[in-house]
Amino acid sequence: MSLILHDTRGASKDFQDSVTDLRSIATFVKASVREGTWIFYKFKDFNNTTNNKQTWRKVVKPGKDEVDISDFNGSVFLLPQKSEGIVLFQHAHYGGPSRYYNDHCDDVNPDFPHETLAGASSAIIFGGTFEVFTEVAGGGESSTLTESEYPTPEAMKVVTHKIRSIRKTR
């Protein structure tokens, strides 16, 4: 995967993977995405906070034009290049730690630990269909998700809860 970032002085740097703290390298203002889908975040550590906002991230796919990232130069995440599967994120708007799954998982909480609110709050599905649950082992509320982006629990139709288990259905 290929990403070229340009800093305020006009210098550029090539990246092949996610970076948790872009500002420790330089102040990047433009991006050229050649391959892969990248999520740019306003803050380091992929906006690892519970009060994420949609305006704090930008999803960029390959294109010919440079993209302005001056408001999203805290960190960058490369989505897995898979034809099927689901990526869960601990916080809304694809923030915080993430994990890729291609099958069922009866308890995602160990991947997204928190003192009181373990689980995942957003998802991106590349292909296939997944049923998500608000309790471990397929319990609680459930919702069926297909290939799409789900930035919030509301988008996943599990309004007041975090995802705690998943099951691949197709």
Automatic annotation (TrEMBL):
Checking InterPro entries in the record gives: Beta/gamma_crystallin, G_crystallin-like
Query: Which superkingdom is the protein from?
Result: Eukaryota
Record family assignment: Belongs to the beta/gamma-crystallin family.
Pfam families, alphabetized:
Crystall
- Keywords, sorted A to Z: Repeat
Domain Beta/gamma crystallin 'Greek key' positions: 86-167
| Record's protein name | Beta/gamma crystallin 'Greek key' domain-containing protein
User: Would the keyword NAD turn up in this protein's UniProt record?
Assistant: no
Organism of this sequence: Acropora cervicornis
